[in-house]
Design brief:
The protein has helices at 3-33, 157-160, 345-352, 355-377, 382-404, 406-441; strands at residues 44-51, 57-64, 67-74, 81-82, 91-97, 104-109, 115-120, 129-130, 136-143, 149-156, 172-177, 184-185, 194-199, 205-212, 215-222, 228-230, 241-245, 251-260, 266-274, 279-282, 289-295, 301-307, 317-323, 329-331. By secondary structure, the chain is an alpha+beta fold. The protein folds into two domains: 3-34 and 353-441, no CATH class; 44-331, TolB, C-terminal domain (Neuraminidase, 6 Propeller). A hairpin with an 8-residue loop joins strand 7 and strand 8 (129-130). The model has no long low-confidence stretch (mean pLDDT 90).
Length: 443
Amino acid sequence: MTGGDSISNNRILCSLIGLVGFLFIASLAYSVLKDNDPYKHFTGLGDTISISTDDTTIAFSYYKDGKEAIYTGNVDGKNVEKITEPEEKTDHRQPQFSPDGKGLIYVAANPDGVQTIHYQSDLTSDETRPLTGTDHHVFSTAFSPDGSTVYYIAMPAEDFQKPEGEKENGAELYSVDVKGNPPQKLTDKDSYAMNELSVSADGENLYYTAFRDKKEQLFSYNLETGTEQPFLEEHTSDGVYHPAFSPNEDFLAYTAVADTSENGTFQYGLYLMDLSSGESTRLTDYNASVTSPVFFHQEDRIALLVESNWPSEPSSYEVMTVSYDGKEAAPIELDLPESENDIQLKAIADNVVNPLTMTVLYLLLFGLLTVYFHKASQKTYFPAKLSAILSGIVFASSFAGAAYNGWAGIGLFMIAVWLFVCTAVLFLFAFVYRWFVRRSTLP
């Protein structure tokens, strides 16, 4: 090789190092600064549905290009209509029809994720009324049988936004009338986790799930006495999720772990319990996850959401209906609006900048540096040693980070593990490259 060729090759090598280095730094900066919300470009169904009392209309939340709003449609899937217009960086979700079927409630999530209740008394009107303020985060809601009161589970917003372990207040039960008078606090339990609220047909009891004794359990709360007790504990030993009572309270629909996939992921099925006997029947076998069961009022059917891509995000839901015996299942094929943005540069960047891309760029950058330092000074292992030092610094920082914030410590530890693995690959590459170069130069 002539001197001119050597200089030309070095220039190409330095140019490649500069290009890959720029791409790595740019990708690193983008991954740190980008919004990691998997739903920000998403178009698809939200995680809650509701059926009107006359069984003619279904309400649901729907993401269109990352914006979640409330829609209604016929139960045959036709005449889908958007009925709420969220403000910028606000999402509307968890719709629930009023008992008379003329209006509904939903929760609005602000940019900080704090959810508040809004009441729309007439579906033919755009007028809505906020029932709660941003001082509390609402988890779940339920109408009283006469539609005059909304019960809900909430916690102070400042505690909702704190990491686990730093919260000073837990979840409680509240009530508020639809006229907009100040809410009333019903409990003072500081519960770790409460959700899936419903009201008995006579309006005397509230039902909800809470995480107690290492499992999700169903509880009842008597509004007159203020007492809480486990409900159907002897029949729900394996955990209850998304419970829903039939209109006459003869049956309880709920989801529970049904199977485990080959990779260890829990698969959930829909179950129907006959409350007179306590016996449960499994209604679905989708090898996925199911959520939001809702009873029809005029026929023995249940609507639900099937999450086909469980546990990936964003969740991809399909509305299904199933008979009480599980033998008749059919989809509700909603005539949903399509995305208006066929090409989104941010969405493309989000897909391109991922852990695999970062790994390839890191190994390529330090691999090129290995070649450069071997040619320049025979210091073949210098880049790998530099990577090892960086790994050690991040590993040590994970302990300091854990003292400040547990999640930060875990994040730094995972990065350190990733760096150690990359470093091992770089040492192996340096060894093989040095051996190959020396062998090729032998006479």
